[in-house]
């Protein structure tokens, strides 16, 4: 239908791509189209299936982003490649200052991990703010970061932590930094025949301060705005600082300028004001049911301010 | 005395009658997933219907081509308006006296309007077919703002009404005008305003929202071509009315139509009216001869069937300097969308909005309502309220706060000063109602004392000063709502639906062994009738509630009734139940007299049987009497023990309540936290305090949602926004505040058991309490009125506009 396309563009412009998940006035379906279901046992097999179907195939992890899109017929893959049968894609381990989390680790498993609670507590804090327990039992880290939805919470967190994504395709593995991965809403560096197999995170120094501040309308809602902060302190001043933002642009945002402003400061009022302004300056949020763009920009600033305060309080040194 | 003889208290307790916190019997099946809902129904050979819907809010349809869809294996039929014209069903009457398209007839008037009905072997095939039904649209200018509906150059939405200067409710003054409804004394009111010391005037809008029951609207229609009988299972709050409408529209005789409402997963007004889905499923089963199921999805529910509110109320109050109110003037602009599909009693185009004088003694008042068309979904229904009562309560409760502000008076004191006094009941309101009973001062005082109202005001003042000094970014609001509802529609002298008087009914049959089956014309959608109706009968005839089965929703077996909405079940059917039970008790008394060989005048009723006055040992229990009624009735008396009662109420009932909301607001984010919410309800006699509490909790949760963000939005192109639970605010247990409930009891003098109905009070009274709390919080910064809904960004915007962000 002609009108359909025109209106989708309109909605896109007016409310951002997220309209298709959240607003739904246009597309009324709740029934997905037809597809073929695959359940490979190895990464190689999965990659081979993806490669042979190109754009028409999609990996399926927890399905809590993909299946809603399929029901709305916003995504209509002809082949679904379920990664749930691949043992190699599970687990969390540490090796010489790097923690590797494999793609099929669920958000619930992130919350339950003692290793993460000790070394990367911000992951637990963030995971607890995602959706609700039912969704976290099935939603995976891999799906969350590979999805490319600016509303997802993990991508900004991974940028804050300077994580690296391991992508496996027909030609083997390659590493892409989380800070370089996101191109636009639902567009990422991932090729159609590639699978995101793991996320590698450099372990921040013991005693680091951290906070994930998320403003949302209710349990299960995506952020109106959210900010992730990790910082270290030494002798009362901030030694290093990393800030990233969720859902205030069509990609997650690593707030490099704001991070630089805070590093080396004592987190005095003037510094905080400057950092907040620098963070707000890079936002480009959509206006939607969560509020107009101006509000969401300001909320990004408030989340940064609150996350800095809480991270600083938690930091030793 | 024999130790085994139960005491009076024990016998009383065994009944679990009125006043008992009896656990809900229906929950045994609901909590085990054993409820039987429409979508659980699977009939042999059943097929599925689903709609092609319009992406446009206003467009001409130039072509519908189903060729490709019909090629898909499993697609049985694609119905369009042209097909329905053959059976005279392309349009249907609405309850409000308008007509509504069943399927788009040449044009569409709102986004997602039903354009074609695809019938297929299963839901997947139906949806595949919908994608390829080709519809050509020619866009027309879109009108979404009701304030522009009556502009001279506004687009013509309803060419079918062209030249019609008379509508169902009097003259139409514009092509998009539906009705004007006027009540009250205009001249007296004008005089009050000309003589007033103080006046206020404010546009108070109540946004568009939706009842959003968890179970959407759905039905299964099945035509037996051999017997000519039509069975329809559906989510119907008023199954008998649906049967009558179905008969009138289809010309199938009413006795050959079986309408059955099984378990219903919430209604809140969404399931009163008739929708295109029902008509199309019925036509489809008549055409195909196989059962057809239609189940609405969430987006369809939120964007097409029955929105609520969209009332824009300009309120003016005249008062003396001491706060005494002398006049009320209200004008309402009512947005009904593309068709006036209000579900009100037929003669009431704006429902009972003339309850807008509220709990206050206004000597003069005048009200005018103008209904208009826009390119939005049709409605609007009474979302957990008795016909526009929640709009009225919001209007007056907001306006009283605004008056208090202007007078520099405390809003609680202003209310106390103007309440209708206990000795004024029955009270004639300036807009035509007779309030049955009330004691407003006692309720208000109890609420204020329990809450520590004066202390809260002192705390608020201190917080405001701290805010002004820059010590905190949090402010505090205290919201007051003292509402009077009007429920129990209604007396036949002024209430009917399509000509059927709004009585209700009950049938009670006592079996020989002393257990009971009873049936009513109402239909529970979560209200707990199976529990509470049995309690009324238990008290009235002394048979334990546990031995009484309550059955509703099957029009073949239940006596005719007008259904459940508008808090009418207890005031109307509740009375019918009591009166039917009393017929049984009267007959039982005669039987007992015969058994005890005394005159019936020598007997007195005692909890669960009759005893001889002055000789309590000589008694017959109801169980014994029931057996006698079938075994050896008195000579000349008909055997059996059953009764039917149809009740036409002499008046409405007027529940009331005092609600207080204490709120803390983060000025920087606009996030509002409800610290306390206290709800005192007076619904007259209390049948089951636990069910009342549950009803109040549920209604308050809805009120919280509506006031704080629940909205159906449209953009200028008529795209409906927020029609999914991602955006439409349905609070979870996490967001929902803690509720403190309380009560006073002022029975209704004209109701057989003095009960008034409570299910809707919390929605009606809750919304103004929340909104007044937000408004109250910002008053000290110079604000008079902030429009709902109060979601975080709008509160933030209000704070910003008031300069609170520095
Ligand atoms: C009601 C609701 C509320 C939610 N709220 C939040 C929230 O607040 N915050 C939040 O972050 N998320 C939220 N989510 C999303 C949830 O966290 C998802 O589970 C997550 O975004 C995706 O993970 P998944 O495993 O379910 O991925 P899937 O849905 O299976 O996949 C998502 C996308 O990523 C692709 N994909 C999946 N795995 C891989 C892989 N290993 N390699 C390459 N591509 C892959 C898929 O093809 C698909 O395109 C919510 C979801 C729901 C239903």
TrEMBL record, chain B:
Enzyme class: oxidoreductase
Residues spanning the signal sequence: none
Domain Aldehyde oxidase/xanthine dehydrogenase a/b hammerhead: 32-141
Keyword Oxidoreductase: yes
Function comment: Catalyzes the oxidation of carbon monoxide to carbon dioxide.
Protein name (Swiss-Prot/TrEMBL): Carbon monoxide dehydrogenase large chain
Coiled-coil residue windows: none
Highest taxon of source: Bacteria
Pfam families the record matches: Ald_Xan_dh_C (PF01315), MoCoBD_1 (PF02738), MoCoBD_2 (PF20256)
NCBIfam families: CO_dehy_Mo_lg
Assembly and binders: Dimer of heterotrimers. Each heterotrimer consists of a large, a medium and a small subunit.
Enzyme Commission designation: 1.2.5.3
Reactions listed under catalytic activity: CO + a quinone + H2O = a quinol + CO2
Swiss-Prot/TrEMBL cofactor(s): Cu(+); Mo-molybdopterin cytosine dinucleotide
Keyword Metal-binding: yes
One GO MF term: molybdenum ion binding
UniProt xrefs under SUPFAM superfamilies: CO dehydrogenase molybdoprotein N-domain-like, Molybdenum cofactor-binding domain
Keywords: Copper, Metal-binding, Molybdenum, Oxidoreductase
